Amino acid sequence: MDEIKLTLPTKIEYISLARLTIASVANGMGFSIEDVEDLKVAVSEACANVIMHSVTPQKSYELIYTIGEKSLIFSVVDKGIGFVPEKETNRELKELELTNGFGLIIIKMLMDEVKIQSEEGLGSTITMVKNLHVNDAL
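The structure corresponding to this sequence follows.
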């Protein structure tokens, strides 16, 4: 498996770099145009969440793309304030998503797998997986 790591400033104008990178990697792997667009939306939403919820003086966050034979795994890692997911009820999470946008809802709809790890004071990682379907590969 190959791995690509990017460290981006917590500025909105750099989200386009994350989108270009994931599109290039996904195209090279043979993902369909629709899946490439889904990946671009998911990475945009994840990066926007980091920037929007960056209440600490955090100046950057990391993107990690892991290229497998039949899947693209990517993580967005921040060192922000984090949160404890167990403390959030489904209702509270839905209310939070409705007031702050549909980022996590969209990501979960577009990706094959989504895992969120977060710890108060240590930051958060959202890991997303998009599988390459046999019909997609060239």
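The chain has one domain: 2-131.
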